[in-house]
């Protein structure tokens, strides 16, 4: 069996002084810098060494718990920044959709305008051909301000609105 060494309490050991010495070695912070949390209290009759050991352990646990809570606060801040960024992304997407809709509308207008111009150009071409045919059938004799009788073909578009006196 292993032998257990018994430590005998020496007279003259000042536990308060020992605690102060330990606190001074512990990088400038005292053991009492973190008060005992509300959720623990010393049991009646516990020895001073047991009480100090328990206090040291609970202080370490409490310190770690506070650091964990601080990380939670940082995580909340990061989540808020993420939410703000998400809102900005949604705004950007909405802007892109509006811009795309505007481009489609503008494209539709230009498409329609080009087709209208093509139809107008075709109408002008047909009118010019009809006017040329009418001019070829007209006698070259003295001109009068009277309109010449149409050749029997029905004119359409602009040609229907132009008279021979306007052509001369």
Give an overview in words.
With 168 residues, the protein is mainly alpha-helical. The chain has 3 helices and no strands. The protein has helices at 15-25, 48-137, 164-167. The protein starts with 14 loop residues before the first helix and ends with a helix. 1% of the residues are buried.
Contiguous helical run count:
3
Portion in strands: under 5%
Let me know the average pLDDT. 80
Low-confidence stretches: 28-32
Question: So what's the overall shape?
Answer: rod-shaped
How many beta strands in the DSSP annotation? Answer: 0
Share of residues in helices: 55-70%
What is the H/E order?
Answer: HHH
Most strands sheet: none
Oligomer: single chain
User: Structural class, please?
Assistant: mainly alpha
Q: Cα distance, first to last residue?
A: 136 Å
What's the gyration radius in Å? 51 Å
List the helices and strands and how they pair.
Elements: H1 15-25, H2 48-137, H3 164-167
